[in-house]
Write a structure and sequence with these properties.
The complex is a heterodimer. Helices cover 25% and strands 18% of the residues of chain A. By secondary structure, chain A is an alpha/beta fold. In chain A, helix 1 crosses helix 2. Classes of the chains: A alpha/beta, B alpha/beta. The A-B interface holds A 133, 146, 148, 150-151, 153-154, 157-158, 160-162, 225-228 and B 87-88, 91, 95, 110, 113-114, 116-117, 120-122, 124-127, 129-132, 134-135, 152-153.
Amino acid sequence: MTDQSYNFAYLDEQTKRMIRRAILKGLAVPGYQVPFASREMPMPYGWGTGGVQVSAAVLTPDDTFKVIDQGADDTTNAVSIRKFFEKTASVATTTHTGEADVIQTRHRIPEEPLTEDQILVYQVPIPEPLRFLEPRETETRKMHALEEYGLMHVRLYEDIARHGHIATAYAYPVRVEGRYVMDPSPIPKFDNPKLESPAIQLFGAGREQRIYALPPYSKVVSLDFEDHPFDPSKAPHPCALCGADDSYLDEIITDDRGGRMFVCSDTDYCTARRDAGHLGEQAQ
Amino acid sequence: MKDLSQEVATGPLLSVRGLTKRYGNHIGCGDVSFDLWPGEVMGIVGESGSGKTTLLRSMAGHLTPDEGQVIFATRAHGACDTVTMSEPERRMLGRTDWAFVHQHARDGLRMGVSAGGNVGERLMAVGARHYGDIRGQAADWLERVEIAASRIDDRPTTFSGGMQQRLQIARNLVTGPRLVFMDEPTGGLDVSVQARLLDLLRGLVRDMGLSAVIVTHDLAVVRLLADRLMVMKDGHVVEAGLTDQVLDDPQHAYSQLLVSSVLQV
């Protein structure tokens, strides 16, 4: 049941219009960070206030909503945001990627390929890819405007100089449509190739008050060096539960004697595979 | 029609015309004009607050001058006024044909990035995307400024003041600029380190055929490096000429004071 004391999806209509304008502008200029008047949400910063506002602006009463946190549907962040929209928008919710119209995600892209009918909403902690190299906002804006992205490669250079390879494993910088360099939020670099997607991808950063977007089928190139090409690596194991060897894995420590298992981080993908009869080594 | 490329080859590299920068009613530097020819080193001396650094920063595009022109002979388009050129063009010039050596190495270096990364930054900024090549050039340049190649992955925070200054010079010269602006490059260094740095600079200027504008209050530095000299006081150039001529036979009262103020050891 909808709590009638809330407007549909919590935010008032004027706020949603403002956010939709920012989203449209973001879609028109792929990868460009559009400032927006982020609202206080009934959850702390860092819990997805940006993503929640974007979801609230794009949800319609007929939509089916899915929330994932690090790939899982059943962790605190995912459960609380799902409950939030169940209560304030009374939209249908699901854990199945294929059935969802809007998917809000933290740190992962679902394994199951998305379709043109879907919207993927990311929660972004720090939208500025140049932030840790250049602390001045005025300067980073200028660098984006003038396409001065040499500094991004300095970061990758430092990685190779220190570790022998590009050690950046998440929030791996990408260049969108040959123009803006974008932080794809802290998704593992394994997911970077999936950024070229038929779905609309929206990125919301609540504390930093920025929205940016990738229209369907945008060209997204992960930055690299000619002699150190981009490598979307993952743990070299199959999933211990469903046996999948093409999915991103979480490492789980099982005891204090070095025991560990690798399982799909995407719980929906793993469950669907097990239901279809695929079993890994440790499946009961 | 005049052949511009000919003019570039034979004309001055940098022509400053009537450059003025005001801070409110106060004049930072007023009505400065001079020509700098390829391969020439110009020294600017004067006491603190005489407008040397303001002049340098106005020429290098760090400050926007209120009046005047800074005409630079660019490789692509011949003589261009860098004051009125668009910001992307000016910043591009700042990464390629121009270099700026700050007085404090910390202002010109990225302290959180390794020495190799510092030298490689300008290369990557102009499109180098081959790690091996960038690293090779960085190592080569560290050697040229007498920093051991084994320190390529160390951060500048672990370097001494003299090494930091040499690293800053390497970082600036790696893209083969034609014009270097230097703001008190030897300031804050002890005399023996200063001497080595000057030696190094003299070698680099000669080998690369660099043109340079050096701001300093140290007359020994200009005696060693500069071909020509401008003496500034209260924002205005009071005397200009060949270095030896100005230092040995100063005409203006202030130049005479300046020259006679140097302690003889």
